[in-house]
């Protein structure tokens, strides 16, 4: 993956850098709190509800409690569970969805998928920032789990190419009236640039 997006390659040694570790913990914690809501509400199907089984399988129901079968919004299988492996979930589940959609007949555009993903990311981000959720990394976290370093590299690059200072957001004080919206704006811009 890193060759396709021209991402930095990180190793466990990078976790010795306090700034790197802080940013890694921030991304991990936000993704841990990010659920799939808007990514299954494409094409105006805003009444859809997503259920994710412990195994990773998803079921999506519409506002009439009918199972959603449309290509763009139907449930799919997650190779990495968003709570147990939030970084890997981004790399092996969310990033392919962002790139190609949910199926071969997916009618959504890349920009629509990025916008939907950002709405879901915002839910996790606001959960963390509004509730002062402590930043975390799992015990023994060392960037050797498949997908972890790639997810961090993608997020870090998305912020860096827009000139956004993630450490400043994390450590504060905030320089804008709505720092969460400012972060999301830069992140969406970075995702768009990386994925186009």
Provide keyphrases for this structure.
4% strand; 7 helices; two-stranded antiparallel ribbon; mainly alpha; 196 residues; globular; 2 strands
Give me the secondary-structure topology.
Blueprint: H1 2-5, H2 18-32, E1 49-52, E2 58-61, H3 86-100, H4 110-130, H5 148-160, H6 166-171, H7 179-195
Antiparallel strand pairs: 1-2
Question: Please, could you describe this protein's structure?
Answer:
- This protein has seven helices and two strands, in the order ααββααααα.
- By secondary structure, the protein is mostly helical.
- The protein has one domain.
- Strands 1-2 form a two-stranded antiparallel ribbon.
- The mean pLDDT is 94.
Shape: globular
Give the neighbour order of strands across the main sheet.
1-2
Task: Find the count of extended strands (DSSP E, 2+ residues).
Answer: 2
Average pLDDT value? 94
Q: Beta fraction of the residues? A: under 5%
Instruction: Determine the number of helices (DSSP H or I, runs of at least 4 residues).
Output: 7
